[in-house]
Design brief:
The protein is mainly alpha-helical and about 180 residues long. The protein is built from six helices and no strands. About 20% of the residues are buried.
């Protein structure tokens, strides 16, 4: 094989391999995102069920329970967006060797980086900052007492917790390339 033929061979080989590696990376990013989204879906269902149970057992705390649920749902959504971003842009940033609840360890620069390209993420950061600054809800302490004394000791809570753990385990078992 002459020099000219060798150059052509290398060029053609590289041209053929680039789409395959891009496809593999895209496939891996999609799998990681889907795996985390399954985990997040379990968390979202848990937050809604848990809040419904609180209101069922202690209707007096409906307002504060809904506020806390909304805060948690926003945090879950923000984490989903962050995982999708890093799965695409910098998969090594995700700690995928750990359990799903530990995949993210973001600093302020990471938050700014994601927010610069994702308007929704930026809005969620603003809402989170506002939630941290709001005064404590007057029923917050009462809710925490009811959670410990009544809600978490109920059979319905234990059933829902078991379902959550099964859903999380199913997500954890997904294998990505």
């Amino acid at each position: 094989m002459g020099r000219k033929d060798m150059k052509r061979f290398v060029f053609v080989t590289c041209a053929l391999l680039v789409p395959m590696t891009t496809t593999a990376a895209d496939s891996s990013a999609e799998c990681l995102t889907n795996k985390y989204n399954q985990y997040a879906k379990a968390q979202e269902a848990w937050q809604r069920d848990f809040t419904k149970l609180i209101v069922e057992i202690a209707p007096r705390y409906e307002e504060v329970a809904n506020i806390y649920m909304t805060d948690q749902l926003r945090a879950i959504e923000r984490a989903k967006l962050a995982v999708a971003f890093f799965a695409r842009e910098e998969p090594g940033k995700l700690r995928t060797q750990m359990s799903l609840n530990n995949w993210l360890n973001l600093d302020e620069a990471d938050h700014r980086r994601i927010a610069s390209g994702d308007e929704r993420y930026g809005k969620l950061l603003e809402l989170d900052a506002a939630a941290r600054k709001r005064p404590r809800h007057p029923d917050g302490d009462g809710l925490r007492k009811v959670l410990w004394s009544d809600v978490m000791n109920s059979e319905k809570y234990q059933e829902r917790l078991k379902a959550l753990l099964q859903s999380v385990q199913a997500a954890e078992e997904i294998q990505c390339p």
